[in-house]
Amino acid sequence: MCGMRFSTQELVSEFQHIVLASAGEHGYFERTDSPDTAGPTSLIFLQKAEDLPDQVAVVVTSERVALQVAPVTRALVVSVDDVRLAQALMKRRFDPYLSADTEWEAIHPSAVIHASAKVASGCRIGPNAVIGADCELDENVIIRANAVIEHDVRIGRDSVVHTGVNIGYKSQIGERVNIQAGAIIGGEGYGFVPNKEGSYQPVPHTGYVRLHDDVHVGSNTCIDRGTYGVTEIGAGVKIDNLVHVAHNVQVGENTLLTAQTGVAGSSRIGRHVITSGQVGILDHKTVPDHTILLHRAGVTEDIPTGGKYAGTPAQPLKEYVRTITLAKKVAKLEQKLRKLQAQLDAPD
After folding, report:
1. Which residues are catalytic?
2. Checking phi first, is residue 81 left (phi over 0); if not, alpha (psi -120 to 50) or beta?
3. Number of other CB atoms surrounding residue 47 within 10 Å
4. Which residues share a beta bridge with 10?
């Protein structure tokens, strides 16, 4: 934890909006841990009373478990409604890799920052990072090693750009955005036009990408800039590793795009949509709010209403399950028919 030390009073005060109660004496902790690796300076998130370690500084748990463990531990016991949510919020706050990033000095001497770029207070820029002309970094932005930020990019406060990320020119990045290693934001879209000889000529993509507040972009994900306008990712969207979002796509708030999802150009995805792995969405298609796409769903036509869909072409989940069940029954009948045919064909 690099010698960092946190007050339990600070913990309870900062998260009073989710803390129900606390029991025990206040003190200090140095790191978050799992129950099986915890030590006397650890904060843990406890789901079951029987997993309580012998020594720990802070226990964050449910009201029910708090009643069980408070009498048998010297740790400060903090009760919350949702332990998993508390873990997400508190671990992000007190994990030094995300919050402090003190491995290097604030601006590494090998970083290349254009004279016209504006870097606000609290920013950290790692080794060999490149910040282009007329970029603006708001307070407490972290740019890690070897990231490239092209010209005219805006990045909102408390955002983190990880190692090897490339953010293309004119991209607009909101507050508290987290872009994981190797992602490419605002790269050239895939657009080519054949000439009379049959060779393909590239269509320049001169638009940009806008990521709204609290977006997460996974490693090696590519979000292409618009041909003319914007490729837009709404607030709170969480994108997994190895996802491709093509030019001029619009993704609504709090949508989840999981691994290897592919979204072709100019599609519209609503709010609170969930795609499972390897979902494919054709160009210019619409997926409405509150849709869940399962089992490698292939969206070849607009989805009419929210709900669960699966298969290719995507169909309502109940229909998809019936289709699979029927196919299995047909396969069994085919086996029986083959056996009967073999018996009929056998010599007497």
Report:
1. 247
2. alpha
3. 13
4. none
